[in-house]
Amino acid sequence: MAGPSMKSVEHIVLLTPGFARDEQDTTCIPFLQDYVLALHRFHPELRLSIVSLQYPFDRSDYRWNGISVYSAHGKNSRFPSRFLTWYRVWKQLNKLHKEKLIDVIHTFWLTEASLIGKLFCHLKGIKLVAYSIGQDTIASNKYLKLLRLQPAEIITMSERLRKNLDDLGITTGGVIPLGIEPLKFPVTEKKRDIDLIGIGALTELKNYGLFIDLVAEIQKQFPNIQAEIIGEGPQENMLAEKIRRLGVEKNIALLGKIPHSDIHSKLGRAKLLLHTSRFEGQSTVMMEALASGTHVVCFDVGRFDEPSMIHVCLDKEKMILVLKELLGGKELSHTPVVLQSTATMVSSFMALYQKTTSFPL
């Protein structure tokens, strides 16, 4: 049977909750920034337009690395004010479509961006690609019942996310894993002087209270253990107080938000990424750790099949045992592992964009 026919794609709109406000804003959805840059690099003939619903809060039309970005600066407003944000986005999509016909709208997360994208594509006869990334696949996501997406319109970042949706009775069109930029992770022979590193938002979901508990337990055997947590969020004060209460101020540093390039340097100095998150789709920081030659200790979330570098634990007790073993003088290989590059991710999505009829991947 003949495969799907291909079409010429000239104008792609990426519809997202947020995007970098300028080239220095490297911590706003880094994987999306890398993807856009790679798409632009490998396909300079394309017109790319980025439309962001909520962030930046203070910019509208601007250029980012030569690419047009429009922000409705919704500022995460509540309903009914949020409908005004949706109206601004709809108006901008109409404007872009009049300037040059949109061939594909690629939405990120199965939430409000995908809802607006679905309605606009249905009305205008435009191809939709909705990318599922994480907690948008759990039953509490109220948008799932509203979206009514066709299977081939939904692409998940990982097999775990595909299964989550399948358990909810939602069939998807395939899996396209996240890619990273290998060039960001130079191989060095520097001494690994950071024993444990944690990277992510300081939220209940990321579970950094457990990270601190683990360090407090391990430092009884390894009194000079050095750990760092990179990120900011609502639990920052609570975590700082817990560090003081447990008396591990000399062992754990809360570094706050730092540039993404500095994160890469930190990973290159770390022995282990301690990933205590309760839930992940496909963890970007795990892939970045592997590309830096850094081992990963985690629960069974957001992971990959790389048994020599990823150490999966079922509970806190197992995590303590694994950390003690890995830090106890065992010679660890820090050979970088790149599971998928952004080039491969771009190639997969371009093949999807160009299909005139959507079929499961």
Which helices and strands, and how do they pair?
Layout (H helix, E strand, L loop, with lengths): L10 E8 L11 H13 L4 E9 L5 E4 L2 E5 L10 H18 L4 E5 L3 H13 L2 E6 L10 H5 L6 E3 L2 H9 L6 E2 L18 E6 L8 H11 L8 E4 L5 H11 L5 E5 L3 H10 E6 L8 H8 L3 E4 L11 E3 L3 H12 L14 H12 L8
Parallel strand pairs: 1-2, 1-5, 2-4, 5-6, 6-7, 7-8, 9-10, 9-12, 10-11, 12-13, 13-14
Antiparallel strand pairs: 3-4
Helix pairs in contact: 1-11, 6-7, 6-10
Describe the structure.
- The protein has 361 residues and is of the alpha/beta class.
- It has two domains: 11-179 and 341-353, Rossmann fold (3-Layer(aba) Sandwich), CATH 3.40.50; 183-327, 3-Layer(aba) Sandwich (Rossmann fold), CATH 3.40.50.
- 34% of the residues lie in helices and 19% in strands.
- The chain has an eight-stranded mixed β-sheet with strand order 3-4-2-1-5-6-7-8.
- Helix 1 (30-42) packs across helix 11, helix 6 (208-218) packs parallel to helix 7 (236-246) and helix 6 packs across helix 10 (316-327).
- The longest helix is centred in the N-terminal third of the chain and has 18 residues, at 82-99.
- It is elongated, with a radius of gyration of 21 Å.
